[in-house]
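Try this one yourself first.
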């Protein structure tokens, strides 16, 4: 058994206490002094969810100043050419490495937008042990058989943005996911603002980015209970910033993701640190970052897989080293995360 002590997140904020972890589960959460000598002291939180990854593209050599289209637009952005040309062994190796790094950074589950059709999902299945894998069809026009094949090996389907695809195609993929009872998700308003009415008609489990979203677009998500995953570091690379403070003010559920492996490693502290800065600059409360990091990630998992990330029910807690009195200093620390 491992005893983790310090500032324990309780869903509202932090209190002094401890968590006991045994057999891969958090078995007890308590207030006050820990009953054993702690194995680690700091900020005690559930293992984190990386809400948006493309874990296979770490090997892409990104040149500074490349645009979003040059880099990731299907079918011929640099990343897609790379994924077509690289060997399967390299992809499996890189995905596995990515998950190992994520694990050591205190991440329990990654939600991966896997390219490469059914084959891409099968490779992800070989490489990853605890991921939500959302596949992406490769056929240029809707192929019901292909979508069925992907859904037989993946947790669901996630598409690029609606601007990159034919509407009817997108609708059919969404319908196939709903018919199979599996989540459908997509990138929304990353490069340009997209038609939110159309996006909502697809009934996504969650949407990613929304950097060009208007208040009405954000409200549509808030009202429908559709979480928004934002990726501050990836957005920053392309000169964009999500209106995170406004999203929270309007009642949207915000979760965090690290996006493309070629741009950012799976490090939620780095993502949360940048979000805290954004919230401050936008007149919001930087400590809301914990809600996005922990509760937002948990909400996302509940919409993608029927598992809960709540304390005591599944994942073990982890400890972020916390050099100061305030838990917020834990986001600035580069010290290793304690993962029991
Ligand atoms: Zn993405």
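Now uncover the answer:
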């Amino acid at each position: 058994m491992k005893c983790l002590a310090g500032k324990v997140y309780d869903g509202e904020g932090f209190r002094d206490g401890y968590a006991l972890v045994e057999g891969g589960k958090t078995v007890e959460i308590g207030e006050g002094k820990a009953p054993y000598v702690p194995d680690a002291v700091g900020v005690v939180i559930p293992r984190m969810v990386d809400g948006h990854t493309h874990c296979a593209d770490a090997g892409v050599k990104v040149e500074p100043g490349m645009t979003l289209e040059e880099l990731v637009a299907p079918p011929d952005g640099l990343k897609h050419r790379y994924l077509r040309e690289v060997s399967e062994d390299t992809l499996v190796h890189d995905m596995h490495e990515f998950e190992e790094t994520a694990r050591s950074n205190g991440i329990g589950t990654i939600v991966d937008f896997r390219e490469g059709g059914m084959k891409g999902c099968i490779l992800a299945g070989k490489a990853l042990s605890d991921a939500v894998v959302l596949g992406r069809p490769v056929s240029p026009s809707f192929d019901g058989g292909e979508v069925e094949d992907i859904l037989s090996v993946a947790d669901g389907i996630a598409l690029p943005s609606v601007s990159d695809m034919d509407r009817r195609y997108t609708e059919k993929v969404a319908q196939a996911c709903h018919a199979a009872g599996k989540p459908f998700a997509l990138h929304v308003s990353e490069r340009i603002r997209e038609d939110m009415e159309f996006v909502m008609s697809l009934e996504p489990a969650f949407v990613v980015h929304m950097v060009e979203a208007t208040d009405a677009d954000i409200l549509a998500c808030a009202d429908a209970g559709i979480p928004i995953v934002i990726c501050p570091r990836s957005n920053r690379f392309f000169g964009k910033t999500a209106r995170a403070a406004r999203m929270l003010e309007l009642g949207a559920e915000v979760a965090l993701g690290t996006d493309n492996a070629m741009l950012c490693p799976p490090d939620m502290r780095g993502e949360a640190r940048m979000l805290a800065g954004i919230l401050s600059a936008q007149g919001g409360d930087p400590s809301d970052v914990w809600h996005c990091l922990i509760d937002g990630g948990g909400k996302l998992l509940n919409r993608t897989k029927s598992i809960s990330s709540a304390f005591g029910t599944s994942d073990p807690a982890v400890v972020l080293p916390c050099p100061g009195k305030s838990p917020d200093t834990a986001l600035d620390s580069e010290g290793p995360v304690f993962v029991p």
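Discussion: Residues 306-313 have pLDDT under 50 and may be disordered. The radius of gyration is 19 Å.
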